[in-house]
Amino acid sequence: MKYDLAGIGMTSQRTRDRLVQRLREEGIQNEQVLQVISQTPRHIFVDEALASRAYEDTALPIGHGQTISQPYIVARMTELLLADNPQLQKVLEVGTGSGYQTAILAPFVEQVFSVERIAPLLEQARERHSALGLNNIRYSLSDGSWGWPQHAPFDAIIVTAAPDEIPAELTQQLAEGGRLIIPHGSDVQRLSVLQRNGDSLTQTDLDMVMFVPLIRET
Ligand code: SAH
After folding, report:
1. How far, in Å, CA of 39 to CA of 41, rounded?
2. Alpha-helix runs per DSSP H in 132-181
């Protein structure tokens, strides 16, 4: 078998449980999200040489100049996405990367549409999801700053790379009441939640964050 799903030592269930306890102490309140994190082997989402560090609460390199997001941020963004809206049908994710955020999100929603611009990352993510038996994810190798118009509108959109400014294409693809969770900014980045109500959007600015840039192909 290609992946050691259960893990041993630094990748064991005990190590995952310690991470979950730490996330709880850092303020993550959604116990269902914590439960999924405790059951998801983050070590298969990084290179084997980094597996022993998979349950540290840090971002780690995944090649191609990209990183797997810090567990706290994954938990936080998932919590924001699910907040008082537990019945999400269609969710768009921009920036599949390692596929870890996708794997944490997938159990909560009917269908995830995940977009990535680097082919080898998308292929690896797909293999990992299939090893975990996650079969409600559709993939697209493309520039996610345009969203995925064929499947819009989405009940929520989560972006895991930061544009300087929030792309209008993404807010336009939100369903009524839908939410966009997105980091943005050039020097300093902030995590924001935008919600569509009719023709208007409300924006709430939250934590300061550090994401790799969202690359817009021209
Ligand atoms: N959630 C991922 C984060 C990966 S880093 C994880 O936890 O592993 C962000 C990812 O966004 C990178 O893989 C990068 O290639 C991708 N990305 C950057 N700009 C993009 C764009 N315009 N469209 C699609 N993906 C993009």
Report:
1. 7
2. 168-172
124 CA to centre of ligand 1 in angstroms: 13
Residue nearest to atom 12 of ligand 1 (CA): 97
Atom of ligand 1 nearest to the CA of 214: 19
Q: Residue 152 Cα, ligand 1 centroid: separation in angstroms?
A: 20
Give the sign of the dihedral formed by CA 194, CA 71, CA 110, CA 88.
negative
Residue pair 212/66 in contact (Cβ under 8 Å)? The answer is: yes
Q: pTM score > 0.90 for this model?
A: yes
What residues are annotated to the active site? 69
Sorted by where each begins, the domain ranges of the chain are 58-209
User: Which CATH architecture fits 58-209?
Assistant: 3-Layer(aba) Sandwich (3.40)
Q: Using a 6 Å cutoff on CB, does residue 127 contact ligand 1?
A: no
- Distance (angstroms) between ligand 1 centre and the Cα of 48 equals 21
- Residue identified by tokens 């839908």 is 178
User: What pLDDT is attached to residue 2?
Assistant: 84
Residue with the smallest CA separation from ligand 1 atom 11 is: 95
Structure tokens at 192: 């924001």
- Identify the segments of the chain with pLDDT beneath 70: 1, 86
- The string of pLDDT tens digits covering residues 119-173 is 999 999 999 999 999 999 999 999 999 999 999 999 999 999 999 999 999 999 9
